[in-house]
Amino acid sequence: MLDAPKAARMLIGGQWVDAADGAVVETLDPASGKIIGTIPDASASDVDAAVAAARKAQGPWAATPPAERARILWKIADLIEANIDELSELEALDQGKPLYVARWAEIPGAVGQFRFFAGQAMAIEGQTITPSITYQPQGKEMRAWTVREAVGVVAAIVPWNSPLVLTAMKLAPAFAAGCAVVLKPAEDTSLSAIRLGELIQEAGLPDGVFNVITGRGAISGAALASHHDVDKVAFTGSTATGRAILDASKGNLKRVSLELGGKSPVVIMGDADLNLAIPGAANAIFFNAGQVCVAGSRSYVHASVYDQVVEGLAAYAGGLKLGHGLDPATQMGPLVNARQAERVSGFIAGARSEGAAIVAGGERLGPAGTFITPTVVANVTASMEIVREEVFGPVLAVQKFDDVEEVVAMANDSVYGLAASVWTESLSHAHRLSSRIKAGTVWINCHSMYDASLPIGGVKQSGYGRDSGREALESYLETKTICAVV
Ligand code: ADP
């Protein structure tokens, strides 16, 4: 059974340490509001030490044979898998998610990342190129080729909604490419990253290739984003923090990848299989209590099936069992903290006052006020805040449409462009809508389908760069061109 650390430490250069000034922040069980323990509250000097450790380790790690890097990545995957029950319980306790979400989606997702990128580590290759340069000394020939080299020291800054898999989405391609990483998990959910650090040490990753800095984002996260010896920041989180990171990164023009917020549309056509579409649309928003960057928070339903779908969604929402993440019967847990629950209930109150109808849920419950009942909001219009803003909670806004042109315009009427789903039995609708909806990912008859092989990331204000897939590996590599007279 779970033994969460009471006074957790951070990992710098292979050593488990407190913050240099001894500062800590408390970490809570979001369901009960009780303190589970503390984590170090790192300052800029701790960040300096972690970046220095990463810098020292990076060169030798990049020079390690790819097969050896792959072997260690595969071993990390094996160790995560061997400790899946403990990691799932830790995530359920610290983040609040139901055990089944951690056990069957999040932690296996992390395993998949390390396995996929173990293979990719051995498939890094450049090109040979024949240039048209006319300069050619007598008796000599020109040759040119490219090599792919690790970006260097990476700061991975991750949020609190799915801590372990989002961490793995940064670490696995970075390690495969030969980068060293300083990870900054979110202050509310650092425990799984700390346990991952122990497993990564056990897997034999050389000291300093992986470092964990904990504490407040505005202090240690900001110090990493502005650090002159960090070569790349890989960020997942809110659009506002993404902007702050981009500003902070200017000093040394470090590479930045941003996987930000979303307001993903779920389009249910009149010809959809509603036995699939209704639970699918409900899961798209209620999974992980809506704390998913690709959550399907706007549903557009064809007029011919609108009443049936709204009724089905409301019934589904009303049937979900809320509870502590560690209770195996729980289908939906609390939000990550009281501040987030307050914010989400503010959006619900706003929708009510703008004239929307709350057809399911809408309540805030629990000893710490962190539970929001699964909420379906109908009678919404395109200008309402509930349709425009990312809520990051279990709140679905449903609108009616009449034809394809109208729903394409509705789906694209957002500053975000992270993901979308289309529910239809028509091949023509599936193709036409998936090509016209502006989003980094469009799912057809499914939603939130992640895999280590599938690039995920946004267009518009949902950010740039991709996690997962070959493209993620490429983003941790630079191209060096070599042009030679031989
Ligand atoms: P939220 O606002 O919901 O807490 P964020 O996007 O701010 O989500 O958090 C994602 C990650 O960014 C967390 O690890 C957090 O500590 C970190 N963070 C927060 N503010 C900053 C900042 N100014 N610079 C760098 N990282 C930050």
From TrEMBL:
InterPro entries xref list: Ald_DH/histidinol_DH, Ald_DH_C, Ald_DH_CS_CYS, Ald_DH_CS_GLU, Ald_DH_N, Aldehyde_DH_dom
Name the record gives this protein: Betaine-aldehyde dehydrogenase
Domain Aldehyde dehydrogenase: 16-482
Keywords, ordered alphabetically: Oxidoreductase, Plasmid
Active-site residue numbers: 259
Stated family: Belongs to the aldehyde dehydrogenase family.
Entries under Gene3D superfamilies matching the protein: Aldehyde Dehydrogenase, Chain A, domain 1 (3.40.605.10), Aldehyde Dehydrogenase, Chain A, domain 2 (3.40.309.10)
A molecular function GO annotation: oxidoreductase activity, acting on the aldehyde or oxo group of donors, NAD or NADP as acceptor
Top-level taxon in the UniProt lineage: Bacteria
